[in-house]
């Protein structure tokens, strides 16, 4: 970042890489009984006291001898030797978090973390800090252990001594901490030739009674220049509203997730720092955006053993956001975050260095370095995470929506029993199960009717002015209950293409669904949730060779075919696959017709079975798809009858391996708990299964591929009115989303939109008189007209238009035409207790 005190930095290059020092204290011997005492919390005259994330006055409780008894004015004096000062601060019950002119300081009762960048003299400040902490009259503490770390400097010769050389730093650190138990230890991890290095010094032993924790640090150089443009200071950059908007627009809000306190600052002329705290955990982000020496760091510390951070997913998300040329990742602690070891980084990155080291007093340190071989920054939105173990696409939420063990289904209370497929067989609780609510990291609302009330509060709280969604995972849960009640013999395999949002996928995975995938990215996205490959059907009857190779690599077996050409491909690239013949069975009234493209005709069935047998391929079943959004239940009766004929044809050819019937998709969505959408269709399916497969149902596995049934009604779209015009008696409004974004469903999915107003700015929000209205999307194409001649009340700029039931084939087919981002809208997750 660039500080307002340029006298410290006469050089033309600003060194973004931080020096980081962590010190743990414990009560000094013979210090007596340490009682709990009230400590004045820093509050008055905060630079950010008007922030929506700040509280100008509060109180914290700290133990006797707490470092938090040191007030901000005294900290400023203690930091002077390091040549940095406090810009702003925030506190919660566990921590005081200070934004500095150069990075950050975090103070706990008996530990501190100090990070400084540029040409700061961090070690010059330590003697004064230690003297104050060890003052027997005021603190009665003693040092237990210390850890210093940093990456390689871009210009080490411009650093002040001793930071010009790690050996000099070690000598200085030994002078401060070498007397601790076990003495000092120094380590350099990485590749000396490429300068991909991580320097670590440790001394001492863990304080008594301190639990196991770990720290994950991501450091990046050569940031995407376009992304860096976000962090140029403007006249109002540090107003609360602008800081909130910046966090949303640049994607950092998603990276943070839910926090107790957030404090950030945009430096003049450019640069950015952020601290966020939740309980004892901290997140700190620092960005130096200047061209030629851009740098950013993201740190998460005080992770406990029960924290479920997937390091590979998190690092991939960070890299996709910042688009760096180089990425350095260091994890240190008594345990390491899940999935840390051995992960790779896709999107043109290659591994530069990989090192693991036991470090005295702190457990282990693992260091990974990656560089893009393309000579430039990684392009966000270009499949950057496609090969990453944690995720196959940039998640719309930085946190795992369901806090569960990977691959484990949610265990329901007395309302569940074990099904034949090993998932939870759900009975009929009247409301959302309390265990489900506890496992979902989302805000709880009383009913699905409260979604708009929730959204209005978010708009005002965060000063929102762009498209966002509210996803109600409680609705997904209730629809699963309805499915289990009405179709107990049919296991749903959710169609990922309908809505690939990680929140929806992780919810359904935890509820025990399988998944219908049709591409490598879709398959990887569900496998990353811990879904077993045998819970996936690759329901694309015409696959690319790369798709088949990826299936084989991941151990995914079940896939469809409808031609000889596909059988030859399967034989060449994945001969172990379990093949399912897809037949044509159309509902002529379906919303989207599929039979013109996929499905074997009846005359082709026996020749295809014979060819599969000739090639030595294993055929295990028959599938069909009556069409997306089918409207006639009788289409399923006809299709199941045709499938029965296929089973009989296979038997005549001596093929006795068929044990699967896939009845495909075509299930309606709509609102509510799903009963209205599913009841009549389920009755026909159950009757037809009994009629045509009754004798085989004990051994027959029946699956389906619903998409919109689970996601359509759960997702509500909110678009802001940012332009208006009146022509004669017609109102015209410009919205922040349109046909090139989520409204593409009007063209491709034949959706019927149901807009309604959400008044935020209008003085008279009770207006009900309707007027002929046209709604335009945000692009410059005249085709981008969402609705014409719809009747709506009058609205003002700053009001919103709500579109319910927008969870099916909306985000998944959006584009960024005209440079207007529509592929990654802000998403808020809620769990409604009831409809």
TrEMBL record:
GO terms for molecular function: adenosylmethionine decarboxylase activity; ornithine decarboxylase activity. GO terms for biological process: putrescine biosynthetic process from arginine, via ornithine; spermidine biosynthetic process; spermine biosynthetic process. This is Ornithine decarboxylase. Residues 408-427 are annotated as: Disordered. The active site is at 780 (proton donor). Residues 472-807 form the Orn/DAP/Arg decarboxylase 2 C-terminal domain. One of its GO terms (cellular component) is cytoplasm. Residues 411-420 have a biased composition (Polar residues). It catalyses: S-adenosyl-L-methionine + H(+) = S-adenosyl 3-(methylsulfanyl)propylamine + CO2; L-ornithine + H(+) = putrescine + CO2. Homodimer. Only the dimer is catalytically active, as the active sites are constructed of residues from both monomers. InterPro entries: AdoMetDC-like (IPR048283), Ala_racemase/Decarboxylase_C (IPR009006), De-COase2_C (IPR022643), De-COase2_CS (IPR022657), De-COase2_N (IPR022644), De-COase2_pyr-phos_BS (IPR022653), Orn/DAP/Arg_de-COase (IPR000183), Orn_de-COase (IPR002433). The modification N6-(pyridoxal phosphate)lysine is found at residue 497. The keyword Lyase applies. PANTHER family: ARGININE/DIAMINOPIMELATE/ORNITHINE DECARBOXYLASE (PTHR11482), ORNITHINE DECARBOXYLASE 1-RELATED (PTHR11482:SF6).
């Amino acid at each position: 970042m660039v500080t307002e005190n340029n006298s410290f930095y006469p050089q033309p290059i600003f060194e973004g890489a931080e020096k980081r020092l962590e010190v743990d204290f414990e009560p000094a011997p013979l210090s007596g009984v340490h009682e709990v005492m009230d400590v004045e919390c820093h509050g008055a005259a905060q630079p950010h006291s008007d922030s929506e994330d700040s509280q100008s006055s509060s109180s914290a409780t700290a133990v006797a001898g707490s470092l938090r008894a040191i007030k901000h004015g005294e900290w400023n004096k203690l930091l002077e030797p390091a040549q940095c000062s406090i810009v702003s601060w925030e506190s919660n019950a566990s921590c005081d978090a200070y934004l500095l002119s150069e990075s950050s300081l975090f103070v706990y009762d008996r530990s501190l973390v100090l990070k400084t960048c540029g040409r700061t003299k961090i070690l010059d400040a330590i003697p004064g800090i230690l003297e104050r902490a060890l003052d027997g009259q005021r603190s009665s503490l003693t040092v237990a252990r210390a850890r210093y770390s940093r990456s390689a400097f871009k210009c080490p010769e411009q650093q002040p001594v001793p930071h010009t050389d790690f050996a000099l730093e070690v000598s200085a650190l030994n002078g401060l901490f070498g007397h601790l138990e076990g003495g000092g230890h120094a380590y350099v991890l990485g590749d000396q030739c490429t300068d991909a290095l991580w320097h670590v010094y440790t001394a001492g032993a863990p304080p008594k009674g301190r639990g196991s924790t770990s720290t994950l640090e991501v450091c990046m150089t050569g940031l995407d220049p376009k992304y860096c443009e976000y962090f140029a200071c403007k006249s109002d950059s540090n107003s609360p509203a602008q800081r909130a908007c910046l966090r949303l627009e640049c994607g950092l809000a998603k990276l943070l997730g839910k926090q107790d306190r957030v404090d950030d600052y945009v430096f003049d002329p450019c640069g950015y720092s952020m601290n966020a705290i939740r309980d004892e955990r901290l997140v700190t982000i620092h960005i130096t955006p200047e061209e030629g020496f851009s740098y950013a760091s993201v740190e998460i510390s005080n992770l406990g053993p029960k924290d479920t951070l997937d390091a590979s997913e998190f690092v991939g998300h960070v890299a996709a956001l910042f688009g760096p040329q180089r990425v350095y990742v260091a994890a240190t602690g008594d345990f390491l975050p899940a999935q840390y070891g051995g992960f790779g980084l896709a999107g043109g990155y290659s591994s530069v260095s990989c090192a693991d080291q036991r470090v005295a007093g702190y457990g282990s340190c693992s260091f990974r370095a990656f560089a893009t071989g393309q000579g430039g920054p990684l392009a966000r939105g270009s499949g950057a995470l496609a090969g990453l173990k944690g995720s196959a696409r940039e998640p719309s939420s930085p946190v795992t929506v369901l806090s569960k063990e990977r691959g484990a289904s949610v265990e329901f209370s007395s309302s569940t029993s074990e099904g034949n497929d090993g998932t939870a067989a759900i009975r009929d609780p009247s409301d959302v199960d309390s265990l489900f609510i506890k496992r979902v990291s989302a805000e709880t609302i009383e009913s699905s009717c409260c979604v708009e009330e929730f959204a209005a509060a978010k708009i005002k709280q965060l000063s929102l002015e762009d498209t966002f969604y509210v996803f109600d995972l409680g609705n997904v849960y209730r629809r699963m209950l309805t499915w289990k009640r009405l179709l107990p013999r049919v296991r749903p395999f959710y169609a990922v293409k309908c809505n690939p949002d990680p929140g929806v996928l992780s919810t359904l995975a935890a509820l025990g669904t399988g998944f219908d995938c049709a591409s490598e990215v879709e398959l990887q996205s569900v496998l990353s949730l811990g879904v077993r490959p045998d819970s996936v059907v690759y329901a694309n009857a015409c696959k690319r060779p790369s798709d088949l190779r990826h299936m084989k690599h991941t151990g995914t077996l079940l896939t469809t075919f409808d031609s000889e050409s596909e059988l030859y491909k399967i034989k060449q690239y994945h001969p172990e696959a379990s093949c399912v013949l897809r037949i044509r069975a159309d509902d002529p009234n379906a919303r989207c017709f599929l039979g013109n493209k996929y499905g074997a005709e009846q005359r082709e069935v026996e020749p295809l079975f014979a060819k599969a047998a000739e090639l030595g391929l294993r055929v295990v079943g028959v599938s069909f798809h009556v069409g997306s959004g089918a409207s006639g239940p009788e289409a399923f009766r006809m299709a199941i009858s045709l499938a029965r004929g296929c089973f009989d044809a296979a038997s005549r050819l001596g093929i006795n391996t068929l044990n699967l019937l896939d009845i495909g998709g075509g299930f309606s969505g709509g609102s509510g708990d799903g009963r209205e959408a599913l009841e009549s269709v389920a009755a026909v399916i159950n009757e037809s299964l009994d009629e045509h497969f009754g004798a085989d149902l004990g051994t027959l596995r029946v699956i389906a591929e619903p998409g919109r049934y689970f996601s359509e009604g759960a997702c509500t779209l909110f678009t802001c009115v940012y332009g208006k015009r009146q022509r004669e008696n017609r109102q015209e409004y410009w919205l922040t989303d349109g046909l090139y974004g989520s409204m593409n469903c009007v063209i491709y999915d034949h959706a019927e939109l149901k807009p309604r107003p959400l008044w935020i700015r209008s003085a008279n929000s009770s207006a009900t008189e309707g007027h002929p209205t046209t709604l335009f999307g945000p692009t410059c194409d005249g085709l981008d007209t969402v609705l014409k001649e719809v009747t709506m009340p009058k609205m003002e700029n700053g009001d919103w238009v709500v579109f319910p039931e927008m969870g099916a084939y909306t985000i998944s087919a959006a584009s960024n035409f005209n440079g207007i981002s529509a592929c990654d809208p802000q998403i808020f997750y809620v769990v409604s207790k009831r409809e």
